[in-house]
Amino acid sequence: KKKTMILGIETSCDETAAAVVENGTVIRSNAVASQIDIHRRFGGVVPEVASRHHVDQITLVCEEAMNNSGISWDDLDAIAVTQGPGLIGALLVGVNGAKALAYAHQVPLVPVHHITGHIYANRFVQELEFPLIALVVSGGHTELVHMKEHGSYEVIGTTRDDAAGEAFDKVARTIGLPYPGGPEIDKLAKGGQPTINFPRAWLEEGSLDFSFSGLKSAVINYIHNEQQRGHELNHADIAASFQESVSEVLVKKTMIAAERVHAKQILVAGGVSANSKVRSEMERAANTRGIPLSIPPLSLCTDNAAMIAASGTIGFLKGMRADLSLNGKANLAI
Ligand code: KG4
Ligand code: ZN
Question: Which UniProt keywords apply (predicted)?
Answer without folding.
Answer: Acyltransferase, Cytoplasm, Iron, Metal-binding, Transferase, tRNA processing
